[in-house]
Amino acid sequence: MKKFSLLFVLMMTVVFILGACSDDESVDSENENGDEDVVTLSLWNRYSELRGGFAQLIKDFEAEHPGIRIETQDTPEAETQLRTALSEGNLPDMWTNIVDLSELMEVDAVKNLDEIFTEDVKAQFQDGTWYENGTTADGSVYGFPLAAPQSKAMIMYYNKDVFDMLGLTEDDIPASWEEFKALGQTIVDESNGSVYPIVWNNPGWANEQLVSMMGTAITPEVPWQENYKEGVPQVYTEGKIESAEFIKELLDEGLMSPESVEIGLGEAEALFAVGQSAFLWSGDWVGRQLVVETEFENWGVAPLPTKDGNPYYYHAGSEATSIRVSNDTEHWEEVKTFLEYALEHLHETVYVNTGAGLPAKEDVGGEPPFEQYNDILELESQLAIPVPKPAELNPDIVEFNRAYRNKLEVGGIGDAVVGYITGNIDDIDSEIEQIDHDMKDAFMETLDEFPEVSQDDYIYPNWEPFEPYTVEKYDELR
Amino acid sequence: MANNLELSQKSTSKDTSNLKTLQKRKAIWAYIFLAPQIIVFFIFSAYPIVMSYVYSFYEWSGIGPLNDFIGLANYQQLLTSERFWNSALVSIYYILGTTVLGVGGALILAIILNDQKLKSKGFYRAIYFLPVVTTTAIVGIIIGSIFGINGFFNQLLVDFNIIDKPIPWLTDPVLAVIILIVIGSWKGLGINMVYWLAGLQSIPNELYESAQLDGAGFWATLRHVTLPLLKPIAAVIILLSLVSGINAFDLVKTLTNGGPNFATETMDLFIYNYAFSSQLGGGQVRMGYASAAGVLLGLFTFVISMVFGAASFGKQIIKLKGNKKKKGGVKAL
Amino acid sequence: MITTKSARVMIHVFLLLFGIVWIYPFVWMVFSSLKTNKEFLTSGTKLIPEDFQWQNYSEAWITANFSGYFWNTVIFTVSTVIIVIVLSSLTGYALGRIDFPGKKTIMICVVAIMFIPKGYTIIPLFKLVNAMGLDNSILGIIVAESSGAHVLFILMFASFFANLPKSIEEAAEIDGAGVLTIFTKVMLPLSMPIVATTAIMQFIWTWSSFLVPLVLTISKPELRTLAVGMENFVQTYAVDFSGMAAGATISLLPVMIIFIIMQRYFIEGVAGAVKS
């Protein structure tokens, strides 16, 4: 027993001494960096494709403004991280958008940026950049826009190495599901099973996006979760169901890499880049990821295959990619300096020069690092189409929407689709019908609670699918 | 916990007033000794417990003031939520699975390792105990990598021609729950083994010897001597295993994160998802709803320990009370 | 009990084979951490890497900041263990050794605490730590982790102290020692077995603790423990598999080595808990 206590005390002592040493080190390093005159700003970034671009931008900025340092932090679990910081009153000075703007406004956490975004400045951004509960609230600006609203539509990347190996040309790129399956079978046969036609991924959001986009080729009146003809939430559409069935068929018929059901986007990109699959479905930012993260350049882009090869679209401005500023920042002047600098340089450095997607600002310079960038740009401008945003006409919708969503068990159909593909759900039709039903019930129930909101707020008679819903169209209804 | 009555009786010869002040002084010291624990308990245990009940009556995102009192609506919604019941079911599978595998397996191992003549016992004991000292969250990540579609385990099975196509261990809802149970049992088996060994070692050797003299073989001894004598400790081990199975958060979060489609979501992961993530919650962060689920989880734990406790402890508590004075206390180490 | 020689050999073979399977995940982890990322993906079931990539460790230790996570975990664990020992030994001594008014009530409370439905206390606990201004230091997670009543340990200490012979105390009292002196100089040293059991059990729990550090440090990378840092690393660099294995090895191996060196004490300590 004595020996034990001796050992124990010894262990604890060692551990403490080591602990103390490391403490000293950290104190030292802080002192080294902690020049008195330098102001340090914190920026939390959740977009992995922007990491490199931000690093460059900040390097350039710090060279010009030696009094300001900017520390970036990657936040892979952005929402949880921001929420905990928020309830601690410990927000970073800046972060890339996460947590609904209305929620942030309610606790006065986010800074009004009207000082920077005058009407002239706002006009330099693309149509559709400014919208309620995204970049603005009650007409004031609360977000520094990063990516263009007309982006984030999914497209199909194809591996030219695989194409060359199998003697395929651009003319072989499939436009319809049928063609995709036929070509897929050829790819499997000719590569002796070493190359899969497609590698997909399993996050719920990605699956919901894919089936919704493919679905618009069949039922275009439902771009996302609402039907703006009938003014109700709707996720139960032929388009979504058939698209989910198509994905499942690919997996079952051996045309999709079996890993697809358990990997995230990053892994899918990596597998595509090493030639394990001929195609990859993903967003506009993936070009940069392929070239920089996986050092693979020999690829091209095309639209997603759809049923019968019909066109599809995605609702523009699906996500207000932007920088938000903490209302509690102690260094507003420095933040302003940075944002003003960013206004001139960010979109060029972070987006165009890295190829990480399409910038929100119009007419920015820069040199895309790979030639396919312009192809992506062109596809996105066709595929991401503005649709009605009910909150533009009735600001009470923002509050209404939150109350409505609180009543829901699931936020969308993504997890159901994943469950269906992995074999957890047999009957996708009734599963989605149930979600649809719950959504409609919750919606109607919430309408009763909000006299200032009515179903008419969700009906847009002058909207036609595939036709951009512009400012003028809203004015027609006002 | 026997009180010190005897002390006061013995010392009657001493000056009584002196004794009284001494006792008073001691009592004051007792309060001083208790104070830190009591203060810490009230601040960091009692207050959070009470608050978790309070939150459960509100619709609250965790940010901003707590002002939207909704009564029992969160509970109503929970009790009709399919996802919540599914998570309760997954938790029950996990609890029962890890208890049967982890406690049962540990007993077999402990009986083997309790053999006096077996060599290198210490070595085996160390090996089987090793997973206990590892961090569950990190183990989950490693295991996730081993059981991936192209992971080590599938490749091994393919190499040995046991299967021709990789098996989706972590994305098939049934297999994923089984993997969780197997890994949870593997992780906890070592500690149960040590508990069993402690129980086995408290059985006096004479009993085995007399059994041998009676001509009882290995199985007969096991059945008539060993197992009956292990009953009291078995109750403790099973209860500990049940309760630890309720907190499966670390493993589930890092191994499957509840997927696919919440098929492996346990109750504590359900709560975490609603409390901290709108993506995996219902599209909104709902601390009040999560707290209500937490209260139900607490009740669930309470019921399990009560039912089990009543079933197995009922008689023993009475026995223990009688034995206490004779049985000189703790025999640790 | 088992007599035949062949049965004995069988048992050894079984224990060994099963033992290899048992710890294989850790062996796999260590060797995977020395592969290149490509080798990790393509080497199949081959265990030994072609070239040992030691730089995976320096990258994980420095670039991915596992050094910071490691020391945070050490400070976090050691502090928690000490606090828990102090709290539960004091409480146990008062309950087991001293007569005072209200003792019974407190005893009943202690036992009752075990059975109160706890609810989901992490949310209020998190709010509380923030309200106390401890959210920006490692003290926050230490306090949160070591808080609460450690009923098992308290009962262990109480029954141990209650069963010590009276003469020990009386002798010290005659020498004029006060309660505090008796406790620190006489009683606590005697209770070393219980202290050891408490230390070891709490060490294992705290080193592996995940939920409390996760919620309290998710937005503060400089305070993260190994478990949280590891989870974050995997989320950030999903495709850096060998880096992941290196980080996991850094996180798990030190405790495993401490365990192997001191395994007898670990196992006896844990056994001590259930015996009482």
Quick take:
Chain C: Residues 70-262 form the ABC transmembrane type-1 domain. Chain A has helices at 2-33, 51-64, 78-88, 101-106, 119-123, 160-165, 177-190, 204-216, 238-252, 265-273, 286-293, 332-352, 373-383, 390-393, 396-406, 414-421, 428-449, 471-477, and strands at 39-45, 68-74, 94-96, 136-137, 140-141, 144-145, 155-159, 196-199, 226-227, 232-233, 277-282, 299-302, 314-315, 322-325, 384-385.
General description of the model:
The complex is a heterotrimer of chains A (478), B (333) and C (276). In chain A, β1 (39-45), α2 (51-64) and β2 form a beta-alpha-beta unit. The model of chain A is unreliable at 1-8 and 14-34 (pLDDT under 50). By secondary structure, chain A is an alpha/beta fold. Helices cover 45% and strands 11% of the residues of chain A. The longest helix of chain A has 32 residues, at 2-33. Chain B has 333 residues and is mainly alpha-helical. Chain B has a single domain (82-323), classed as MetI-like fold. Helices cover 70% and strands 0% of the residues of chain B. Chain B is built from 13 helices and no strands. Chain B is flat. The two termini of chain B are 20 Å apart. Residues 1-14 and 317-333 of chain B have low confidence and may be disordered. Chain C is mostly helical. Chain C has one domain (65-275): Orthogonal Bundle (MetI-like fold). Chain C has 15 helices and no strands. In chain C, α4 (66-97) runs antiparallel to α11 (192-208). The longest helix of chain C is centred in the first third of the chain and has 32 residues, at 66-97. The mean pLDDT of chain C is 86. Chains in contact: A-B, A-C, B-C. Chains A and C meet through α1, α3 and α10 of A and α4, α6, α11 and α13 of C.
Topology:
The complex is a heterotrimer of chains A (478), B (333) and C (276).
Chain A: H1 2-33, E1 39-45, H2 51-64, E2 68-74, H3 78-88, E3 94-96, H4 101-106, H5 119-123, E4 136-137, E5 140-141, E6 144-145, E7 155-159, H6 160-165, H7 177-190, E8 196-199, H8 204-216, E9 226-227, E10 232-233, H9 238-252, H10 265-273, E11 277-282, H11 286-293, E12 299-302, E13 314-315, E14 322-325, H12 332-352, H13 373-383, E15 384-385, H14 390-393, H15 396-406, H16 414-421, H17 428-449, H18 471-477
Parallel strand pairs in A: 1-2, 1-3, 8-11, 13-15
Antiparallel strand pairs in A: 3-14, 4-5, 6-14, 7-11, 7-12, 9-10
Helix pairs in contact in A: 2-12, 8-9, 8-16, 10-11, 15-17
Chain B: H1 5-10, H2 16-55, H3 73-79, H4 82-113, H5 121-129, H6 136-146, H7 152-159, H8 173-201, H9 205-213, H10 218-246, H11 249-255, H12 267-276, H13 287-323
Chain C: H1 5-32, H2 37-42, H3 55-63, H4 66-97, H5 103-113, H6 122-131, H7 138-146, H8 151-162, H9 166-174, H10 179-190, H11 192-208, H12 211-217, H13 226-236, H14 241-261, H15 263-275
Keywords (chain C): Cell membrane, Membrane, Transmembrane, Transmembrane helix, Transport
Transmembrane segments (chain C): 12-31, 69-94, 106-126, 138-162, 238-261
Membrane topology (chain C): Multi-pass membrane protein
